[in-house]
Structure formats: structure tokens, C-alpha cells
Amino acid sequence: IEFAQPQSPTGTRVERQDLTEFLRYYTSEDNAEALGDPALTRRFQALESFLKRELEHVYVYRVGDEPRIVVLALGTTKDGQRLVGFRTVSIET
């Protein structure tokens, strides 16, 4: 299944990323110290593993421009009947 680019107001930037690419900083053992808590790295690794195990065609959509970017991680259920995921906001400076 290939998702269409989400509709957004004219001029709004929408970028699609692979889930692994999006989470790479947070799931890397090399960055565990930088995150301030090695347990946080394990939690992000568990999140990535769960999403990949339970969903298919998982992508991350980054909507908007810095400093406030809306992030949608979306995929389909194994039976292909539902689109599920989560939404968060990334503040980037």
C-alpha cells in the first residue's frame, strides 16, 4: 500500500520519512548518554519494534516548518482495514 501525501494548506511543507530513519537518533546506543537516560533509548527501541511488528507500511510524516513541526507516524493494521498511529509535535531550533 502506498499512502498519498497528506493534504495540507498551500505552501505547507510535508516530508515523508521511513520510521527507522526518523527514530535513528533516539534508538542508537551511541546516543543513549546524550539523551540523558539510557532507559529512554530502550523505550524508543521498543516503540519502533512494536510499530514494525504490529503495523505494515509505517511512515512518518513531518508537516510544517521549524520551529514547530507536527509529526504523524502512520501505518496499516495487518489486515489492511485500519490506518493507525500517533501524532506528536517536534520543536526544532
Q: Residue-averaged pLDDT, rounded?
A: 89
Q: How many domain modules?
A: 1
| The CATH topology | Nuia
> What form results from the Cα inertia axes?
flat
Into which percent range does the helicity of residues fall? 25-40%
- Beta-strand content: 35-45%
Number of alpha- plus pi-helical segments: 2
Distance between the termini: 34 Å
Placed side by side, the strands forming the largest sheet appear as 1-2-3-4
Spell the H/E element sequence.
EHHEEE
Q: In CATH, what is the class?
A: Alpha Beta
Number of strands: 4
Fourth-level CATH superfamily = Nuclease A inhibitor-like
The major beta sheet can be summarized as: 4 strands, antiparallel
Question: Which class of secondary structure composition applies to the elements?
Answer: alpha+beta
Q: Low-confidence segments, ≥5 residues, pLDDT <50?
A: none
Radius of gyration, Cα only, in angstroms?
14 Å
At CATH's second level, what is the architecture? 3-Layer(aba) Sandwich
Structure description:
By secondary structure, this protein is α+β, with helices and mostly antiparallel strands. It has a single domain, classed as Nuia. The chain has helices at 19-27, 38-54, and strands at residues 14-18, 55-63, 68-77, 83-91. It has a 4-stranded antiparallel beta sheet with strand order 1-2-3-4. The longest helix has 17 residues, at 38-54. The radius of gyration is 14 Å and the shape is flat. The model has no long low-confidence stretch (mean pLDDT 89).
